[in-house]
Amino acid sequence: MSFDANKIKQLSAKHPKSPVTYTYGTAGFRTKADVLDSVLFRVGLLAVLRSQSHNGRTIGVMVTASHNAAEDNGVKLVEPLGEMLKQSWEAYATSLANAETEDALLKALENIVQKEGINMSAPANVVIARDTRPSGENLVAALKDGVAALGGNLTDFGIQTTPQLHYVTRCINTKGTPEAYGEPTNEGYYAKLAEAFKRLVGGKQKLAQFHVDAANGVGAIAIRGLLNAIGGDLTATIVNDNINDAAKLNHDAGADFVKVQQREPVGLKLIPGENYASLDGDADRIVFYYADEAGKFRLLDGDKIATLAAGFIMDQVKAGQVTINGAPVKVGLVQTAYANGSSTAYVKEVLKVPVEFTETGVKHLHHKAEEFDVGVYFEANGHGTVLFSKAAIQAFHTTHGQKEEQQRALRILRALSDVINQAVGDALSDLLLVVAVLVNQGRTFAEWDSAYTDLPSRLEKVKVKRRADFVPTDADRRLVKPEGFQQKIEAVVAKFNKGRAFVRPSGTEDVVRVYAEADSRENADLLAKTLCDLVAKDYGEGAASGSS
Ligand code: G16
Q1: If you average pLDDT over residues 429-449, what whole number do you get?
Q2: Is 66 an active-site residue?
């Protein structure tokens, strides 16, 4: 059985393609919302095929541009257990999005069906959600047309955080199995996290006053739902929770702003001794911060979260004497080029945990982390989670502690595997993880921060003529193209004590990113600026030839 070409053509005509070349990037398709209508329609088609290729298991589709500006939007597909779309399917997504005519679109569809051997009479189930961006409503309508064009069943979860959509996708697909993940509703999500969190912190001394910046995005709704479910064990004030004024979304607020600007968001005046966190626009990232005794802003980013989690889990695994097939549990950490050099050194030398590097994008880190029994992965920007293998979870449940200390560690490990979102990096779940670890350790933000000192760093972006000219290699740490440019970068870096830098094209914005770190704030800034100037001179929008 094949598809109904007339129906596809008819519905596709409602969603004409813009003269744009689309790429399925770091986090799916992401660009200005006003050129995304046809992309959403076509992603709807692909979601049906992907579900059919999984014999009708449910596929998730999230409409969001996360940390990007309010006028942007985007879309990404979610696999049945909540992982990002299988990489070999990204090329199919790109081929559908760029088909210029309806005939070309049909051909691209046929190609996928044929290559993947898809049984078109298999059922197809798709769940969708969107963030608070006003453009989301029309884009969801286009997505629904795409799913309808291939006869798929669709459930619309309305406005949700990205991790909530990943969560419900996993719940639906595991329902009734030994791996059942929870109730596929927002209430189920809040209840699951709250229950596990309470097991971790119940009866213990709470942390100091908490403040959460919700970036004026969907996280503002979700954090309230979560705090209600938790009750007295965690209270927080919420700022930047205006979801009705799109212009405010991520504007001078949110995890990306705080991480890149290295300062507090609008709406917060930091009080020494109190605790702060910022979510991003779709609540899949989080960073923490506080003011030290001198009132100076101090950031606790994804690297600090990763080291906190890895250290704590290592301690519990040892105290719990957990083994898998007689061998100690293998805990590993996955980072990207953005990880601060001090964090990597701390993990290797002090925690003695192996570290792996991948390209930017949680989709890459997630897969690498699956290679460990317990894989901790975080991008420096605060996007990440901890994955527990089936064998690890089983070991936590079947190991019988002799002494109270061992039993306590085992209880903690069980609760951690429930409080941590196994489907994807999740700001709310990560918030609970961090609070639970600190409460159990009886430590403050400042004490957590003191584990190691970040090398000063700076992240900048440069508008270039063609970011596709920049081709990274070696987990984004070096460029193979433009030819000869890496040597220029290295010549600059060599002049700085503890200098490290790289240049890579963004997969979510039309820019090239420049990251630099060095022994002092001045040097990190100077190194970043020198490299930005170099990129702009040779390849910037105003550069003469587009090459040196
Ligand atoms: C997305 C990805 C992250 C990535 C970030 C920036 O975050 O999910 O893994 O680090 O974009 O990517 P790039 O430097 O390629 O633009 P989010 O929070 O926007 O979904």
Answers
A1: 98
A2: yes
